[in-house]
Amino acid sequence: MSNRIDTLAHSNRLRLLPPGQKAGFATTLLLLALVSPPPVQLLISLWLVVWIVGYAGIPASTYLPMLLLPLGFAATSLPAIVINGVGHDAFAVVHTDAWRGLNQPVGGWTLYISKLGLGQALVLLTRSLAATSALLFLLLTTPFNELIQVFRKLAVPPLLLDLMVFVYGFIFTLWAIVDEIAIAQHARSGYSSWQRSLRSLGLLIGQLLERSMASYRGLAFGLAARGFNDDLRLVRFVKYHSSPRLQSEAIGGCVLLAVLSVAWTR
Amino acid sequence: MHIAEGFLPVPWAAFWWLVSLPFLLVGLRSLSRITKEHPELKLLLALAGAFTFVVSALKIPSVTGSSSHPTGTGLGAILFGPSMMAVLGGIVLLFQALLLAHGGLTTLGANIVSMAIVGPTVAWWTFKILRSSGFPRLAVFAAAALADLATYLVTAAQLSLAFPAASGGFTASFVKFGSIYAITQVPLAITEGLLTMLVWNWLQTYGKPELAILQLIQQDN
């Protein structure tokens, strides 16, 4: 199971911009996306398409499904927000809130589409879209180990950072193990029915734990042999280049969006 | 289940971050105590985190025919203990946001509360109580299934607090969110319970040395 996002983060065209700048840009847009009115949120999403597909060179056929996937979650929650039910006799009370209602009560309940709910749903969709775009910009342009450097500057506890670095490394080792076991299982009629799938998966997870512990023991011995005492430093050789043109577009655009949101709310 | 990026209004996102913070700090303190005594345990903890992440990224066949992801919180809590799971679960959720785009950074606090704090705590106590009353197999099944159910109920509550219905407020909203998610989450909880039981049986039979090493983390909890 190779990771799509991680691969793109290492190979996109904005890879060599300083990670601090990219993180700052994404965070600013994320916060702006949370507080700005819907039209500005849509502008943010569109502008980020230019950055991600245009500047970073992520194929649109990869980016759009990635953007729509988290929105699927939003979509499944929307009926709960939009559709309301009240006891039939109480319908008069909520009459002002009802946009469309069912004439026939269902089991003593009148279902209706709530105006408040529709408003909430619209705001939610545009906000999720803009915020997800900002998050994806960061994920698709900045590899995780470079985000760690940013976290380090933000005074995140070192123990937490160490754990994250190790977890990041182990994830790919374990994924490789999962791939190998799954291929072997498929070759021996694993996953051929629902019950068998569950059995195969149970075996896979158990063996994964065993194999992970084996690799832990190997690594622990190896590190102990090299005098490991609670501190593992990694050397970086990447040289970053900042681009004045992109920098001015980022700053100018953020200021413009902020001004627009203030103007719109007035 | 994850609340997506940008889904919660700012005040609620901040509120859930504040709720999760004390748990993370306490977890982090006990972690740093353990790793000072045994530096190599840092690797073991990271491995536990990576293991939980990879398990949560597997697809499990759901009863309804569609496939879904296990949360891994039940198994994690049984193997590594609940106070470790607050921090490990937090890291796993961060990786899910950053490598898989499941969940988000602003909603990370809310997701930590439901999946790394409430779920594992429920799993741990269910496991402990049922095992000591002499139902070791049921204990594993119930721990994993109830952890999933508790997680989904907390998520439904978090969303209803943020989006109360125009009539009926929080309660009406909770019933609506709860019943929509129940369609996917109840079968998932049962499936994950069965799966965790299979994993546990296998580990009891063939993985005794591994489980013994994991005791190192748990006894210091």
Task: Note down, in words, how this protein is organized.
The complex is a heterodimer of chains A (266) and B (221). Chain A is mainly alpha-helical and 266 residues long. Chain A is built from nine helices and three strands. The longest helix of chain A is centred in the last third of the chain and has 32 residues, at 194-225. Chain B has 221 residues and is mostly helical. Chain B has helices at 10-37, 41-57, 73-80, 82-99, 108-132, 136-162, 169-206, 208-219, and strands spanning 60-61, 67-68. In chain B, a hairpin with a 5-residue loop joins β1 and β2. The interface between A and B is large, with 87 and 75 residues.
Brief account:
The complex is a heterodimer of chains A (266) and B (221). With 266 residues, chain A is mainly alpha-helical. Chain A is built from nine helices and three strands.
Properties at a glance:
heterodimer; A: 266 residues; mainly alpha; 3-stranded antiparallel sheet; 9 helices; 3 strands; flat; B: 221 residues; two-stranded antiparallel ribbon; 8 helices; 2% strand
Q: Which helices and strands, and how do they pair?
A:
The complex is a heterodimer of chains A (266) and B (221).
Chain A: H1 4-11, H2 19-35, H3 38-55, H4 60-82, E1 83-87, E2 98-101, E3 109-114, H5 115-141, H6 144-153, H7 158-187, H8 194-225, H9 244-265
Antiparallel strand pairs in A: 1-3, 2-3
Helix pairs in contact in A: 2-5, 2-9, 3-5, 4-5, 6-7, 7-8
Chain B: H1 10-37, H2 41-57, E1 60-61, E2 67-68, H3 73-80, H4 82-99, H5 108-132, H6 136-162, H7 169-206, H8 208-219
Antiparallel strand pairs in B: 1-2
Helix pairs in contact in B: 1-4, 1-5, 2-4, 3-4, 3-5, 3-6, 4-5, 5-6, 6-7, 7-8
- What's the assembly state of these chains? heterodimer
Secondary structure class of chain B reads mainly alpha
Total count of helical runs of at least 4 residues of chain A = 9
What does the average pLDDT of chain B come to? 85
Shape of chain A: flat
**Most extensive chain contact?**
A-B, 87 and 75 residues
- Spans of chain B of 5+ residues with little confidence (pLDDT < 50)? none
